[in-house]
Design goal:
The protein has 284 residues and is an alpha+beta fold. The chain has a domain at 96-242. It contains one helix and 15 strands, in the order αβββββββββββββββ. It is elongated.
Length: 284
């Protein structure tokens, strides 16, 4: 009887040991699979980051190539890097009578509209095409605005050998600031712009436009648009062709694993600091 009891206890102990071993194996397998899964995920994320960085570097190389030389307008070519490549293109802005659309601008920042052609070295070409001082410019704002923004318009021009500045401010709301009222019917500049003002730099007799009082033969140089009170986007719809405003360079980088990154850079012409808006310059 005693021997049978001992044998029974041994069998039960062996069964418990086998059960414990099975449980330990399951726990170990679970932990191992979890670690393997985590490792695979980390490797995949690291690979994606590396491939994304490689595609971005290729796109940057395309931008640098376009900025570093006299690249023709339109599709221009490919830059090849180890494991990646980039296609870049250059598109001009302006040079037509189409509306010129500008991005959201916060108070304190400015948007620039060139009214005079530039030379190949980016200097002003005073013998080239200039927007006529007697032609209308429709200036619109209020799209993407977080409030009713006013706008300060600054015109740079040349008259009788001197470089001069003219300023006017417009406001769609009556804030007691003595700004000129803006039109508020909406849908301006062939878009969803809420406010507008139609200006003419030179003297005119059209009551629908605002006169800046410049001489009719003044040489127009540059117009600045600065939002006041609230961020807003701008558009300018010219009555005639605007001079070229700059270039947009687009570069698309792609790795051998088909990871794609895109960079777009606006290359404008050099402008004076806004600190000089209130200064006058004379030509000797």
């Amino acid at each position: 009887m005693k021997n049978n009891y001992i044998k029974k206890m041994q069998r039960e102990n062996r069964g418990q040991i086998v059960l414990i071993l099975v449980l330990l194996t399951v726990v170990g397998l679970t932990i191992g699979l979890s670690l393997i899964s985590r490792t695979i995920t980390d490797v995949r994320i690291t690979s994606q980051i590396e491939q994304s960085s490689r595609a971005f570097s290729a796109a940057e190389a395309g931008i640098e190539t376009a900025l570093g030389g006299n690249v023709a307008i339109g599709p221009t070519g490919t830059v090849n890097l180890p494991g990646a490549s980039a296609n870049y293109s250059v598109k001009t802005i302006g040079g037509s009578s189409d509306p010129l659309v500008m991005p959201l601008t916060v108070p304190g920042d400015t948007q620039h509209v060139w009214l005079l052609d530039h030379n190949p070295d980016d200097s002003l070409n005073e013998a080239g095409y200039a927007y006529p001082a007697g032609s209308n410019l429709e200036i619109c704002w209020g799209s993407q605005s977080t409030g009713a923004a006013a706008v300060l318009i600054t015109l740079f021009y040349k008259d009788a050998g001197s470089y001069k500045v003219a300023k006017k401010a417009y406001d769609p709301e009556n804030r007691g600031n003595n700004f000129i009222p803006a039109e508020i019917l909406g849908g301006y500049c062939q878009g969803d712009y809420s406010y507008r003002i139609v200006i003419v730099a030179g003297s005119d007799i059209d009551p629908a436009t605002d006169d800046f009082g410049l001489p009719a033969d003044a040489l127009m140089l540059l117009m600045r648009l600065q939002p006041l009170y609230a961020p807003t986007s701008f558009a300018v719809d010219p009555a005639q062709n605007l001079p070229l405003q700059g270039k947009i360079i687009t570069s698309i980088g792609q790795t051998n694993t088909n990871i794609v990154r895109k960079i777009q850079v606006y290359q404008g012409f050099p402008v004076l600091p806004t600190l000089l808006d209130f200064s006058f310059f004379s030509e000797n």
